Amino acid sequence: MSLEFLWYIPNQVTPGHRGDAVTVDHNSLDTLTAQAKALEEHGWKGALIGTGWGRPDTLTVAAALAARTATFEPLIAIRPGYWRPAHFASAVATLDHLTGGRVRINIVSGKDNLGAYGEHESDQAHRYARTKEFLQLVRKLWTEENVTFRGEHFQVTDSTVLPRISPHGGRLHPKLYFGGASEAAEHVAATAADVQLFWGEPLVGVQERIERLRSLSEELGREHAPLEFGLRITTFVRDTTEQAWAEAEAKVAEMAKNQGAPPQNPHRPTAVGQQRLLDLATRGDVLDDNLYTAPGKVGGGGAGTTWLVGSPEDVAKSLRKYQDLGITHFVLSDTPYLPEIERQGNQLLPLLRE
User: Fold this and answer.
1) For 164-178, what is each residue's pLDDT tens digit?
2) What whole-number distance in Å separates Cα of residue 304 and Cα of residue 322?
3) Can you give the residue ranges of every domain in the chain?
4) pLDDT tens for each residue of 291-306
5) Fold held by 4-233+307-352
6) CB-CB contact of 335 with 7 (8 Å)
7) CA angle, 286 as apex, 279 and 297 as ends, to 5°?
8) Does the keyword Hydrolase apply (predicted)?
């Protein structure tokens, strides 16, 4: 199976990220388009666009960036609570049609500010049961016509989404990426998702989860193509190993000075996957060859909790070890975004494609 390399485009109202300089136009269309075009020019397939209440709408941002690019593929993060399945399926089918099949979707089920957008299902079991139905129904709407569906959370009658999604090679519809480390999340991934995304855990942890998800897929009677696996992680790359570690440690020290800003999503630290990452720091500042856990101690969250640090050769070697476990989708990033798109596109990607 071929490898796919994506980046991350910051989709946030509040400027500044992990010590970056604050700029007024950080989320303007021109700024984000410059990043998307740089991704095209430097060998990246596309980029994840993050979601959360209080952030710009991802589908709108993705549509704007797709209109200004030629090959850029947005990986659009969405929460089922923001959308009804048929409305979402129609919106994505339209964007997929207009872009010639460049759309990917990342379904997010972690807690958010539910009350702000009229949601009440905060219980984990209900949340993931709803997510599973959402995935099942959206896939049906993209691949079948005259769909009637009667679920616990969603229902449609004689529903046909237009325009119909056109197959592109072996791709019948946009890939459905999914994250989550709880038992409930893994059951959803094993049965209803296309790609399970992992955070930057040590190799042994990722290997255990891949083996468990493969077993679950068989046990639960997965009906789709085999589940694929992806890694979402910060890659801190410099010309030499020594330079990379010196600058990474300096950046963490600067983050420690500025620690205390409220998290964008206050529920994130309670998520099972996030807690797994934060717990890694108790095992040491550096795990495996170059997985740096110290950022998680000073406010790093999500993909910024752990970093792969080193020269292009160091980081490529580590990513190839994840590939050997079965990872085929890589969603990488570091800040400042635009220079790192260019640096890692020029120095890291060629090594990964050898």
Assistant:
1) 999 888 899 999 999
2) 18
3) 4-233+307-352
4) 999 999 988 778 889 9
5) TIM Barrel (3.20.20)
6) no
7) 45
8) no
